[in-house]
Amino acid sequence: MAFKSEAGEEKDRVMAWDAGVRVFHWLLVILVVNAWVTAEWGDMEMRWHKWNGYAIFFMLVFRITWGFLGGHTARFINFVYGPAKIVAYARSLRARKPSKYVGHNPLGALMVLLMLVVLLGQVASGLFSSDGLFAYGPLSGFVRGATAENFALIHEFGFYLVLLLVFFHVVAILVYLFVLRENLVKPMLTGKKNSQNYLDASKPTKVMFLRLIFCVLVSAFIVLFVVSGFDLYELPSVLLD
Prior knowledge:
Layout (H helix, E strand, L loop, with lengths): L5 H6 L1 E3 L3 H23 L5 H23 L13 H12 L11 H22 L17 H34 L6 H6 L1 E3 L14 H19 L7 H6 L1
Antiparallel strand pairs: 1-2
């Protein structure tokens, strides 16, 4: 029996997810769970929940900027598909003969976009929310009291929508693992997949360190500017509130 060497095994693998995508994915998982915990069991003023929301805001802005400057599979231009390809992939999945993608497949890409939109909606509603008593979002002063309370209701309902998307995401992972015999979790940890004839494999995924730092700094500035009420001089009081 012949065994492949470690070098040979490494040669048969391709880089699928860069560090930016992987760190974003796992930090977002932790932050979404923590958002629920801090909302249910946090203090009345939602101080920890707000900090968690700011962190989610930062991660989302980073993912959007990384979607233009990141590695090949991270860029929106390489994984945003039209309705025809999404339907065709869904049919091939139903027949248990889906095409192979080194990055997001059409349905996975749709889930990514939906999650980004819904979470951005959550962040926006949270920024303008107020319960009228103890908890106030940093931008709640820009709207009337009744409107801020309506945003709070939207924020609460939106979390159930997030849970629904998470449920579908987990189900999809389990279907791929037990029905299609494809582990989607491991590549998101290691960044690598087995070498195959992938439809979207045209360039290797690389991380440009300076681009990564640039995206982090830009994202941090945008988040701080927004949560300060568009006045960075007010930022210390907002963060200490």
